[in-house]
Write a structure and sequence with these properties.
Layout: H1 2-12, E1 28-32, H2 37-52, E2 56-60, H3 66-75, E3 80-84, H4 85-92, H5 101-109, E4 113-115, E5 125-130, H6 131-137, E6 152-156, H7 157-161, H8 166-173, E7 179-183, H9 185-194, E8 200-203, H10 208-211, E9 214-217, E10 229-234, H11 237-240, H12 242-248, H13 257-268, H14 274-286, H15 297-332, H16 334-349, H17 352-363, H18 367-391, H19 395-403, H20 408-438, H21 451-460, H22 463-491
Parallel strand pairs: 1-2, 6-7
Antiparallel strand pairs: 3-10, 4-10, 5-8, 5-9
Helix pairs in contact: 2-12, 2-14, 15-16, 15-18, 15-20, 16-18, 17-18, 18-20, 20-22, 21-22
Length: about 500
């Protein structure tokens, strides 16, 4: 017996003696990026550097603006994202005066956050004006705008509200223009080109400055701080993934303003995929051959269809499970019904984008806030139709059920709900179609789906990209409409249709 146990023990030892335990798998580093081209390219550079060093990285691109990324970092939903020193000082820390590297690091460290050294370039805010207009009016400095209140200004929505954006500019230069509009960056450039705007905010590495021949007005009163590009990361990253952080630090000082502008131009103007742009730079500048996998259009559409369907299915099923009982209560108890219908009606009036943003502090980024917002939007049509279907049953039918001595539960399940089924299915169908369309907004918080190519297409002014998301979304809505039509034919008797 002893020999047998010894033989089994020897056989269980793998070749090589088994002295070494398998190396633990590297922890995945989650890298976020803002919803503009440069941030996406920088995020891709960081992700490919980590992977090239043998680590694991997940790049969650185009998650939104500064606050969304910052809060995601603080909550631990991402580990790293690219940002700028001026943005961190003014927008995040609300510093009234410029902060040097040491002061910035100390203030961020108290919040559990750290930054790398400068990546090598500064991407400043500036005010861009078409050259013809600048020449005609003699505009060379931002101070000159005060002499022309008739000029039409259009700034990005984030710039309009940032502490280092329009509020600071207006206060420092005492500007009082006749009208200022907030809009998306790419739409602002189109408005400049068509003559609908006279000036907008630009990033100094933006290729549109050269393409549209814009003049950058001198910030003569120094309203804008310095904006050195850095990688912001959680303070516990050196402990959790030291090799990944070492790989990320290879980007320090490696990117010049000209190189960043060229990468932006390749991605934004030439429509080269950000991952290919990043791989080309890493090979040329750092000698790193990063593997880039290209995904064809059919594969992309299939993947986004799965993501979109998951959002719609979870939100809709949860809404049905909640709305049907609420509809029953509202039909049987008029006082409670008025309150339920009023609350669900108020939720329906909240703009979908605002409702999604409200969910971010509660649920973070990703699928959770998108599903929660879609769930709330899907409630009203179902609740209202359940209520209408039940209250619309003829009194004599209800009296007949009572005369048969059926208890309340049996009357509901065997008589009332079957009679109300056409109305209920109509409400579910309406909610399903609304949910399919609204789910495109989930891309704003990293939930994926058909909204991803739509947002990318708007950012790059690419109609094919927009159609890559819009056409499947429309087809899915039609398919859902047809599916519920077939379900009604199968579940509802011909006499009740």
């Amino acid at each position: 017996m002893t020999r047998l146990l010894l033989a089994l023990a020897v056989a269980a030892v793998p070749p090589g003696g088994g002295a070494e335990a398998p190396a633990p798998r590297a922890e995945e580093v989650r890298i976020g990026s803002k919803a503009f081209t440069e941030s996406i390219v920088l995020g891709e550079l960081a992700a490919q550097l980590v992977r090239a060093d043998g680590g694991r990285a997940d790049h969650r691109r185009a998650l939104g603006g500064t606050r969304v990324l910052w809060e995601a970092l603080r909550r631990g939903e991402i580990d790293v994202y690219p940002d700028y020193t001026g943005t961190l000082a003014r927008e995040i820390l609300s510093a009234g005066a410029p902060l040097d590297a040491r002061a910035l690091g100390g203030a961020l460290g108290a919040l559990g956050v750290a930054v790398t050294g400068s990546l090598g370039f500064e991407d400043r805010y500036a005010i861009g004006v078409p050259r013809e207009l600048a020449t005609r009016l003699g505009l060379t400095r931002i101070s000159d705008l005060a002499r022309h209140p008739e000029l039409r200004l259009g700034f990005t929505n984030e710039f309009m509200d940032r502490a280092d954006g329009w509020p600071a500019l207006r206060a420092r230069y005492r500007l009082a223009p006749g009208g200022v509009r907030g809009l998306e960056h790419d739409l602002a450039y189109r408005a400049l080109r068509s003559g609908e705007l006279d000036a907008t905010d630009v990033y100094t590495t933006d290729p549109e400055i050269r393409r549209q021949d814009l003049v950058l007005l001198e910030d003569d009163l120094r309203a804008f701080p310095e904006y050195h590009a850095v990688l912001v990361y959680r303070a516990d990253l050196p402990r959790r993934a030291p090799a990944a952080l070492a790989a990320l630090r290879r980007l320090e000082g490696s990117i010049s303003v000209e190189e960043m502008a060229r990468m932006n131009e390749r991605a934004q103007v030439d429509r080269v995929a950000p991952e290919a742009v990043a791989a080309a730079f890493l090979e040329q500048a750092l000698g790193i051959a990063a593997a880039v996998s290209s995904e064809g259009a059919p594969a992309r559409v299939l993947r986004r269809t799965r993501e979109h369907l998951a959002l719609v299915a979870v939100a809709l099923l949860a809404a049905i499970a909640c709305a049907v009982p609420l509809g029953v209560v509202s039909a049987r108890r008029p006082a409670a019904g008025r309150l339920i219908l009023a609350v669900t009606g108020v939720v329906q009036t909240v703009p979908s984008l605002a409702l999604l943003v409200f969910m971010i502090p509660l649920l973070g980024i990703g699928a959770a806030p998108a599903i929660a917002a879609l769930f709330l939007y899907a409630l009203l049509p179902i609740v209202r139709n359940v209520h209408a279907g039940l209250t619309g049953i003829a009194p004599e039918v209800q009296e007949a059920a009572l005369a048969l001595g059926l208890p309340a539960r049996a009357r509901l399940l065997r008589v009332e709900l079957p009679l109300a089924a056409p109305a209920i299915l109509a409400g579910v169908r309406t909610s399903a179609v609304i949910t399919v369309g609204s789910a495109t907004l989930g891309a704003l918080v990293g939930a994926g789906g058909y909204g991803q190519p739509i947002l990318a297409g708007v950012r790059l002014a690419s109609v094919p990209l927009i159609l890559e998301g819009a056409v499947p979304a429309a087809l899915l809505a039609l398919a859902v409409e047809r599916l519920f039509g077939l379900a009604e034919r199968a579940l509802v008797s011909p006499g009740l249709r």
